[in-house]
Amino acid sequence: APDIPVIDQAYSKLSNSITVEWRAVPGATNYMLTAQDGDSFVETLVKNSPGTVTGLKPATLYRITVRSINSGGKSQPSPFRKVKTVLAAPILSVRSLSCDSISVSWKAVPMAAGFSVSLMRSDGLGRMLKQNTTNTSLIFTNLDPGALYTIKAYAWNANGMPGDDFTYNQRTSPNAPVDVKVAFNSDALRAVVSWMPTEGALTYSVTVSSGFMKLRCNTSSASCTVPSLQCSSEYYVSVTAYNDAGASEPTDAVSLKTIPCAPVNISIEEDEPGHLLVSWSSITLGHYYVVFVKSDDGLEVHCNTSYTQCHFQSDCGFIYFITVFAYNKAGQSPLGDVFNFTTAPCCPSDFRAVLTSSDTVRVTWAPVRGADLYETRAAGGSAVVLCRDTATACTLSALHCGTPYNITVYSFSEARGSNTSCAPQSVATAPCSPEIKNISKEGLSIVSVQWQPNNEEATYVVTARGEAGLWHCTSTRNSCTLMDLPCGSAFSVSAIARSPAGQSFPSYSIPLETAPCCPNDLTLTQVTQSVTNISWSVGRGAQTYVTTLESPKGQAKCHTLQTYCLLGCITCGTNYTVSLRAISETGLASSCTYQGYSSSACCPSGVKLYRLSNSGIRVFWQASDETINYKADLHGSKGNFSCTPSSGLSHCDITKIPCGDVYTVVVAPVTNKGPKLTLFPSFCPKKIYS
């Protein structure tokens, strides 16, 4: 083994390690460093001096020894040295309290007598700040807003020995933006807010507030657009800068006044003939108003005022279109409602009365000067209908149907009184609408319609309308008959009355449905001995179908939405009657009958095979009916063979069968004429013969 090494020095620069230096030992290939703390120790194998033992505890006294190693073994431990590891680094908690200060705090470090904390801009600008303290927190002030700082801290022990250091990067929050400007777009009711960028800011938030309402716009640039502003509102705009350290103080609020809203509560009246008075309600932030009045001949005038009313001259018989705008420094209010006003016409002329519906008359006349009001009077029987209006048209509604009326238009003027020289005009209203009382079916395609007659000398027309077409019948009485209605069809039945005065409104429609059509084609196909498939064509108007096969031995029935159905429990060799019911969505049904159906003859039972020789077999069976003849068929790859028994026997022999093959044997009934049923292989069971 090599000689014992001698330690020159041992020291700790990190809280978890001790570095050892010793003189090299001739012949040694490795060295074993040991750090012992009571009963625990840590060993590290190194090649040469110096060597470091890691994984140690901070502020702990260790006994350090070194042993030299070669192929011959290990030396004895060197004389020990006592070395204490340095203090652990304090773990910092750092935050920016404001745009020019940073708060640093940490937990107490065992064995620490004090702490040293330094701070410097990460870009190297400015000077380094350093503070020593025995507390566990301190604050750096008078820092640059929005700047990134590097903070380094370590603890020292009672001997002034520094421990591990801890480094942390922290940015101060940004300063508030400056030079905030607001540009208002009156057409789009939005504002563009801009400012000078501030150092260290990553994003900006614009707050636009008015009372309890706040709008916000976030951006990473130096401008932001705030949409959806309200008219007649004063907003206060401020900008706040943000970075990962927090937010700046908001800027001083900038006032923004939007355009006024469109004036409301606009009233127009002709306070005296030839003069119009336009008035409206006062608008918040409205400094002055402009009223535009345009007549229907294209002439336009306007009035500019700081009050809430304007006067205009007018002529009789004209229509005026009136718009009011409010203005302030921000611009013009949006377009509000456009009002029209018709001045009083002059004396009526060119009088016309036209029947527009069975109970409504439209009365028109040319505009006339000097008239303040028109009265239209319609007298018919004991009833009088009046209409008063300043317009040159009047609609007399709710007149009695089938009644002649005398209609007169009177004009009124404050200066001349009433003009009663207008001649009346006679107008008869259209007949009254009939009311269908009953619809009865008199046959498969015949329907009788009855109604309440309520007109004199009127002709009634009944119409059945459906996808299949139109059917009509006409009568001067109280009923008529619709003929040849198709099956499976839905109709809407209504009636009208006609007279020389016109045509009434249609009556309320009554729904009518004819029974569904029977399917034209019906096919029965035997699937197995006891299952039969029935299919049929679509019956118009049918939603579901009920098919029935019935015999003295029993009944098979199926109810389906499809046009086919599988019926089970069919008895072989039985004659069935076939019927079908087509049922509509509302429950109307048609019963349909078709040609009868006979199921296939019954298969035999107890089929057994006996070998007669190498080239022959005998086939036995039990007949299901003594009147049925049977035939045995044998099918193989080398040929097909068959046999038919003599009368009254239940067996037959098949000979001269090629050897060395596997055969399928089927015994099936045959008809009186000889040939088998076409589907017998799927009905009767098979036997395998080898």
TrEMBL record:
Residues 1-88, 89-175, 176-261, 262-346, 430-517 form the Fibronectin type-III domain. InterPro entries: FN3_dom (IPR003961), FN3_sf (IPR036116), Ig-like_fold (IPR013783). Transmembrane segments: none annotated. It comes from the Eukaryota. This is FNDC7 protein. The lineage of its organism: Eukaryota, Metazoa, Chordata, Craniata, Vertebrata.
